[in-house]
Design goal:
The complex is a heterodimer of chains A (810) and B (227).
Chain A: H1 2-15, H2 17-45, E1 57-65, E2 72-74, H3 81-88, E3 92-107, E4 110-119, H4 123-126, E5 131-133, E6 145-149, H5 150-157, E7 166-171, E8 174-184, E9 197-200, H6 210-213, E10 221-227, H7 233-238, H8 240-247, E11 262-269, H9 273-276, H10 284-311, H11 313-325, H12 330-367, H13 379-406, H14 409-413, H15 424-457, E12 467-470, H16 478-486, E13 491-497, E14 507-511, E15 520-526, H17 531-535, E16 539-542, E17 552-554, E18 565-571, H18 572-577, H19 583-586, E19 590-596, E20 599-609, E21 624-629, E22 635-640, H20 645-659, E23 667-669, H21 670-713, H22 715-723, H23 728-762, H24 773-800, H25 803-808
Parallel strand pairs in A: 4-9, 6-8, 15-21, 17-21, 18-20
Antiparallel strand pairs in A: 1-2, 1-10, 1-11, 3-4, 3-7, 3-10, 5-8, 6-9, 7-8, 12-22, 12-23, 13-22, 14-15, 14-19, 16-20, 18-21, 19-20
Chain B: E1 2-12, E2 17-28, E3 33-37, H1 44-51, E4 59-64, E5 67-68, H2 74-84, E6 85-89, H3 100-109, H4 115-129, H5 144-156, E7 162-166, H6 174-189, E8 193-197, H7 201-204, E9 209-214, E10 217-223
Parallel strand pairs in B: 3-8, 3-9, 6-7, 7-8
Antiparallel strand pairs in B: 1-2, 1-4, 4-5, 9-10
Helix pairs in contact in B: 3-4, 3-5, 4-5, 5-6
Classes of the chains: A alpha+beta (810), B alpha/beta (227).
The structure holds adenosine-5'-diphosphate (ADP) and magnesium ion (MG).
């Protein structure tokens, strides 16, 4: 029986090569797109699932809250939490932590930057890290032994054995020598725990730095807790507020203890950290969006299949009728057509897998990742794909099977020609569906890209070009370094600040407006006097801060005390919030600013600068106060002469080596930092464009098939029209109009859906484009143009045929 | 073999009601060769379809081999049909994608007959209708007369007791028409009941009895002496 089905199926396929090609190719492209998208999404969702017992491991995270301030979310926890957890919850099996540090590493004469983890002694057990050299028992008993990953070993020691070799680390409290006590497997790419260089934690390295080791102000320790299997973690989460209440010290010294602020402790499952943890680098919402697109593309492909197979029912109605006369029951007919479409689905799946295999290198380059599809090693995935192929086949064949099951043989068997069989309307609906999805995707892709361009072109209020941000200059040598650099003609300006644009400020100050109203919240940015010059932020009134005592709020060498009064600068928005009529009006005015709750400084406004973006360009510009705090100047921004960039970089390197011989120069370019803000959205836009193109391609293929079918079916009608005097134009026009209607209708459906989706998405941006009608109309025109180009060729051929040929056929 | 009693068939389309058959009473004995004649649109095909269980009557009874099948479900009718009734159509209705032998074999596919036996029976019946030399050909490579012979073979390969032929010679020239009629006659002589719609009085002469339909009514029944 199935051999017979197979035979008719194969011969039908071969007889209608165009239809078969479109059906299979459409499904294959749809499936390939679906597989590619889900591969990416799966990868993002599968981070850190490889650790043994990953389901019972949680990361402790803390969020600092303070009235009037933004929440400060930390991926880490404070030191005391470990013991509190072990003592409070019997369900806790173990806690392991590390403290992440970027340090200088010296090997002989060479210096390198190295990220190291000061890990608890149980780290290697806790995560069951596999050893390549050395053994778990032998390491960490001795504080001088470091454990490094294979690739780290290769970096420093090449192919030779690393065991026992020594390296010098430049730690906060001075240089220390370590020997390699073990080499472990490289950390997996899809893991938040990158254990390339483990050093046993030792409090001695942090003497005088209580915040790393004792108090509750800075959550510095990345902490993981493993619960006994079956633990009700929700119950433990619920106990957190009480736990904080009981253990967090509440002294009078509010800088160290929580009288004015509080913390929330959360537990995030290890596998969820990548997407949902504090400081997560993935975005689950976007991933779900991609999944949605994957299903839409698959839907378009299936609709293609449904559509073409329904268009062709007339061709096979006779066969089905004969089979029924000869005794085929409905079940047989359904079985036959489902088997046929499942077969096609599986063929399409094989082609899709080949396509995926070919596309993966480019796709990986595009996403800068290393996805792979290995069916041999992943039988579950192979099985799922099989189910997918069968499912797609079943849904693609469903309509046809149903239609044929209901077919009455007597309606078919008595005529030698086949009239339209009443599936015309259904086909229209299917075409409309397809083009509605395509047009909707086109509109969305357009505006997403548009928004990214808009954001890129947004005037940031400062000049980000030709700037380098140098780290680790917040020390006694900072001024020397700065002076030496400025001596070079290739370095045109240098400014210092605690943070730089794109990073945002965490300081929220309460300032009372001149009207005497309630205090307003203004962002504080500790900066040096030349910050505004290097960033080229224009002055609206008054003057910039200068290097003189009255302009300095906290000076080096005054035991960290803030002065009672000092000069400051504000931005235009802050002037407005504080009730000044104009920037000029603010100059010379005295306002009382609370740097923290108990620290009041009487400040005099000596300058008002134009508003500029300090937070992400996604966010709205906030009012700001800029003051000089010589203790908080960790970033040094260097402006170089673009005509002599290479020379400027040489100067920077040389000056660094001369000033800081023991550490590594680290800098980033401001242009890169600005660009990085747009990266997620830019990538989203590019992905959308890519998959929209695929969706449109599949739809166009379907339309072409449908046009061919219509052309074939209407040969006779067109012959008669021509005999009656219709011109070539009229006929082509007739065709184009017939296919324009569903496309136009599809656009009308797509518009509101795209509109609401986009409006919602754009609301996430403080500076967003407005939705204009033109791109919507543009999408409709594009869809029409694609439709016409697809159909026109067919229409022309049909319109050109000699009517006699067509009519003689009958 | 079968008996129609007060049988009517009304087609309802959007506005019109067509009474294709109006209180028809017909009885056909096993082994008979009956011709049905009448002008176009008088209900001949409708009658044949109901007898062949491709359609159900609007009212009245249809007793087939002692069973009143007038209200049977499609599935049940399909089952009775495939055991007992073979069809021959004016437009042959062979499946283009299948070869001659595959077309014939199709009639056995839905009968749960093992492949080896199917093949044997197909060979036998192809010999009988003289198409064996074309077994591997596709329908489009055959003449109309040959195609109709394949259709006849397909109608009888399952040892059906009754063959319904709707204008089997309508698309054929007279020589090929003659051939088909002789084949039907031979089958009838072997005991197969044959009911045939035809416009040709000459071909009606092969039958023992002619039923004349007009506007859904049986007008006359002529019995002929056996040839
Ligand atoms: N499926 C149908 N729907 C509506 N009317 C039909 C249908 N089939 C046949 N008829 C009508 O029933 C009548 C008898 O048709 P038919 O049995 O095909 O006649 P014949 O075969 O004698 O030419 C005709 O008037 C025809 O129009
Ligand atoms: Mg008829």
């Amino acid at each position: 029986m199935f051999r017979n089905y197979l035979k008719t199926a194969m011969r039908n396929l071969l007889r209608n090569k165009l239809f078969s090609f479109i059906n299979i190719a459409g499904l294959a492209i749809g499936l390939a797109a679906f597989i590619l998208i889900t591969l990416f999404v799966r990868d993002e969702f599968s981070w850190d699932r490889h650790w043994s017992g990953a389901d019972d491991i949680y990361r402790m995270e803390m969020t600092y809250t303070q009235p009037g301030q933004v929440d400060r979310k930390s991926p880490n926890a404070v030191d005391p939490l470990k013991d509190i957890f072990l003592n409070t919850f019997p369900e806790v099996e173990a806690v392991s932590r590390y403290l992440e540090f970027d340090v200088g590493l010296r090997q002989g004469d060479a210096m390198y930057g190295q990220r190291i983890l000061f890990a608890d002694h149980n780290f290697l057990d806790f995560f069951n890290v596999r050893f390549v050299e050395g053994s778990r028992e032998a390491v960490f008993s001795d504080l001088g032994g470091a454990v490094i990953s294979q690739r780290t070993a290769e970096k420093y020691f090449g192919t030779a054995s690393a065991l026992g070799k020594s390296l010098t680390l430049h730690l906060p409290n001075g240089d220390r020598d370590f020997y390699v006590a073990g080499v472990v497997e490289n950390p997996k790419r899809d893991s938040v725990i990158q254990h390339d260089f483990l050093v046993p934690f030792n409090r001695d390295y942090f003497t005088g730095m209580r915040w790393f080791t004792e108090d509750w102000r800075f959550a510095a320790r990345t902490s993981f807790v493993r619960f006994a299997p079956g633990t009700n973690v929700d119950a433990i989460r619920a106990a957190m507020p009480d736990l904080v209440e009981r253990h967090m010290p509440k002294g009078t010294d509010s800088t160290e203890t929580g009288t004015s602020w509080s913390v929330d402790v959360d537990l995030v499952k290890l596998g969820d950290v990548h997407l949902y943890g504090n400081g997560a680098n993935g975005d689950a919402g976007v991933l779900y969006g991609f999944l949605g697109i994957a299903f839409l593309i698959l839907l378009i492909a299936v609709v293609n299949f449904l559509n073409l197979s329904m268009a062709r029912t007339a061709h096979r109605a006779r066969e089905v009728a004969v089979r029924k006369v000869l005794g085929a029951a409905r079940g047989h007919v359904i079985q036959q057509f489902l088997a046929e479409s499942v077969l096609l689905g599986l063929v399409a799946l094989l082609i899709a897998l080949a396509m995926v295999e070919l596309a993966l290198p480019y796709y990986n380059a595009f996403l800068s990742t290393v996805l792979e599809l290995n069916l041999m090693s992943e039988p579950v995935v192979a099985l799922l794909l099989l189910v997918l192929g069968i499912g797609v086949g079943l849904s693609a064949g469903s309509l046809q099977a149903l239609y044929f099951a209901m077919l009455k043989p007597r309606d078919v068997l008595y005529s030698s020609t086949s009239a339209d069989n009443g599936t015309g309307r259904l086909r229209q609906v299917l075409v409309v569906t397809q083009f509605a999805i395509s047009a909707g995707l086109m509109i969305i892709a357009f505006f997403v890209n548009q928004q990214t361009q808009f954001a890129r072109a947004l005037d940031l209020g400062f000049n980000p070009d030709n700037l380098l941000v140098v780290a680790r200059t917040n020390n006694d040598q900072g001024d020397t370094f700065k002076r030496r650099l400025l001596a070079s003609p290739y370095i045109t300006a240098i400014g210092r600040s605690s943070d730089v644009p794109t990073q945002g400020s965490e300081d929220r100050m309460q300032v009372r407006p001149i009207t005497g109203d309630d205090t307003v919240t203004i962002d504080g940015l500790p900066s040096g006097p030349d910050f505004f010059r290097v960033y080229q932020i224009p002055l609206l009134a008054g003057r910039y801060l200068e290097d003189m005592p009255a302009d300095i709020t906290r000076a080096r060498g005054e035991e960290g005390e803030y002065r009672r009064s000092s000069n400051i600068i504000i931005n235009a928005l802050a002037a407005k919030r504080l009730g000044f009529e104009s920037p000029q009006a603010a100059i010379g005015q005295l306002v009382a600013a609370n740097l923290t709750r108990d620290l009041r400084v009487d400040t005099t406004i000596v300058g008002v600068v134009a508003d500029f973006h300090f937070d992400s360009a996604r966010d709205v510009i906030r009012p700001g106060i800029y003051y000089t705090d010589e203790y908080r100047q960790s970033d040094m921004t260097v402006r170089y002469d673009p005509a002599n960039k290479a020379a400027a970089l040489d100067v920077l390197n040389e000056t660094w080596r001369a000033t800081y011989p023991d550490s590594i120069l680290e800098y980033t370019s401001m242009e890169d930092m600005v660009e990085r803000q747009y990266q997620t959205d830019a990538r989203l836009g590019e992905m959308l464009t890519m998959f929209t193109l695929l969706a449109v391609t599949i739809s166009a293929m379907g339309l072409y098939g449908l046009a061919s079918f219509t052309a074939e079916r209407r040969t006779k009608e067109i012959g008669i029209r021509k005999v009656l005097g219709a011109r070539l134009r009229d006929i082509v026009g007739l065709f184009l109009w017939q296919f324009s209607k569903p496309i136009l209708l599809a656009n009308l459906i797509a518009w509101p859906v795209a509109f609401f989706f986009l409006d919602d998405w754009l609301d996430g941006f403080a500076y967003r484009i407005d939705l204009s009608l033109l791109p919507f109309v543009g999408a409709a025109c594009a869809a029409l143009a694609i439709g016409w180009l697809t159909v026109a060729g067919r229409a022309y051929v049909v319109a050109r045929t000699n009517p006699i040929n067509a009519l003689r056929h009958e | 073999m079968l008996k129609l009693h007060n049988l009517s068939k009304v087609y309802r389309t959007d506005e019109v009601e067509t009474a294709a058959l109006n209180s028809v009473n017909i009885e056909i004995e096993s082994g008979e060769f009956v011709a049905i004649m009448g002008p176009s649109g008088c209900g001949k095909s409708t009658l044949l379809n109901i007898v062949g269980m491709l359609d159900t009557p609007s009212s009245g009874d249809y007793v087939f081999m002692g069973e009143n099948v007038a209200r049977y479900s499609e599935a049940k009718l399909s089952n009775i049909r495939k055991q007992n009734i073979g069809f021959i159509f004016q437009s042959f209705n062979l499946i283009d994608e299948l070869s001659v032998e595959e077309n014939i074999e199709l009639a056995l596919l839905y009968h749960n007959i093992p492949a080896s036996e199917r093949r044997a029976r197909v060979e036998r019946v192809m010999d009988k209708v003289g198409i064996a030399h074309r077994a591997k050909h596709m329908p489009s490579q055959l003449s109309g007369g040959q195609q109709q012979r394949v259709a006849v073979a397909r109608a009888v390969v399952g040892d059906q007791a009754m063959i319904l032929a709707d204008e089997p010679t309508g698309n054929l020239d007279s020589a090929h028409g003659q051939e088909v009629m002789e084949m039907l006659q031979a089958l009838n002589e072997e005991g197969t009941t044959i009911v045939m719609v035809t416009h040709s009085p000459a071909h009606a002469d092969y039958a023992r009895r002619t039923i004349n339909l007009f506007d859904g009514h049986v007008v006359t029944e002529n019995l002929r002496a056996a040839v």
